[in-house]
């Protein structure tokens, strides 16, 4: 939430890799209770209506400090996560498996001109 507030104050386009909806979807996927504050945060701190989703891609998957689970877990949670975004009213656009530059071009070409 802090990063979203900072981005809004900066007044420029920002992209987020993982966030509130991902936490919500992860809890739901694991059949764990969703705290009221998290459900409220997903309602109040909304992303743009269009959400870009990168499908699980084993050739580029890497674990890091933020992505501690394995590829199998990532693949299993992908469809439920997309369902969570859609349930919250987002349009999900899947980013094709292309080279980095082509993926960036794909995303930028689908942004409304008012955002650029």
Helix-strand blueprint:
Layout (H helix, E strand, L loop, with lengths): L1 H9 L9 H10 L6 H9 L5 E4 L17 H17 L3 E4 L5 H10 L7
Parallel strand pairs: 1-2
In short:
With 116 residues, the protein is mostly helical. 47% of the residues lie in helices and 7% in strands.
Pick out its properties.
about 120 residues, globular, mainly alpha, two-stranded parallel sheet, 2 strands, single chain
Give a written overview of the molecule.
The protein is mainly α and 116 residues long. The chain has one domain. The chain is built from five helices and two strands; from the N terminus they run αααβαβα. It has helices at 2-10, 20-29, 36-44, 71-87, 100-109; strands spanning 50-53, 91-94. A two-stranded parallel ribbon has the order 1-2. Strand 1, helix 4 (71-87) and strand 2 form a beta-alpha-beta unit. The mean pLDDT is 89.
* Biggest sheet, spatial arrangement of strands: 1-2
Number of strands: 2
Kindly provide the radius of gyration, computed on alpha-carbon positions and rounded to a whole number of angstroms: 15 Å
If you average the pLDDT, what whole number results? 89
Task: Kindly state the percentage of residues in helix.
Answer: 40-55%
The first-to-last residue Cα distance is: 23 Å
Briefly note the structural class of the backbone. mainly alpha
Main beta-sheet strand count, sense and barrel state: 2 strands, parallel
Uncertain segments:
none
The portion of residues forming beta strands comes to: 5-15%
Oligomer: single chain
- The coarse overall form would be globular
Indicate how many domains the architecture comprises. 1
Number of helices: 5
